Amino acid sequence: MEKMMKGFAMLKIGEVGWIEKEVPTCGPMDAICKPLAIAICTSDIHTVWEGAVGDRHNMILGHECCAEVVEVGSMVKDFKPGDRVLVPAITPDWNSLEAQAGYQMHSNGMLAGWKFSNFKDGVFAEYFHVNDADGNLAILPDNIDPVDACMLSDMVPTGFHGVELADVEFGDTVLVIGIGPVGLMSVAGANMRGASRIIAVGTRPNCIAAAKKYGASDFISYKNGPIEEQVLAMTNGKGVDKVIIAGGDVDTFEAAVKSVKPGGKIGNVNYLGNGDYIKIPREAWGVGMGHKQILGGLMPGGRLRMEKLGSLVANGKLDVKPLTTHVFEGWDAIPQALQLMKDKPADLIKPVVKLY
Q: Which of 203, 208, 153, 198 is nearest to 176 (CA)?
């Protein structure tokens, strides 16, 4: 293996570019992989242009890909060079106390399961390092295209985790705020869990079309007035059972709290890139006693989740193809794909770059 590699990096807040670094070293429980395809995430935009997790210098970007294993450590049992693998965006340390408590995404610190492009070089490089390979990688099923596989790194598990946080049950009326790729997967997950009515907030025609395919029954445009007023009008003043926040900002919680019934649950999986405080309306929250639960969480990551989600796609239970609207080829396309995600043209859902 070469000693040096190229990667596309955050040079500082607001600036990106190609850099050269040493190929990472493989520990005894780890793996070194090379990406087969990578996807750009809105989180990359928050990180670079909003400085949402603080300044980073010469940090290789990217946390969504599928890959080929090129090296494994001496203690790795289940993977070998040449294996094609699913790679989760969240790669916990599975021997941590937080993992034993069921919060592996926060292993060794809040959000510390999110390593790629947070405090560790990401996957937009010729080679990247995966900690605890047996706990975090999963074999890529033969019938899943690498472009589709990229959606399993983050978009699918994050959208589904919103459904878990909101505790969607059979017959629930569910509001999904934001129907980008994560919100679309929240719609799909809520539908799988048996929601009877799914109200989606979004305006882009291609996202609306995809949301209908995934099970959304009603649509709201924030351009037509406050979300909560439209929700209450659609539900005879009762509100919804559950809310999933997959888009918006710190002010979006106000609409969510006003839209959900007493005893309802709100699950947030939106990466809040700016703002110091979340706004919770006092009266609508039952002056603090309305039993309106608000949960926000980073998706769990890890091998088991990757295997289960891969099985859904491989067995035809989940079609992720509508998520990818722009496919590029070759390393030189990464800057263009990143800029596309920053600009967010109306026809964009998700860009992917093929590297094989």
A: 198
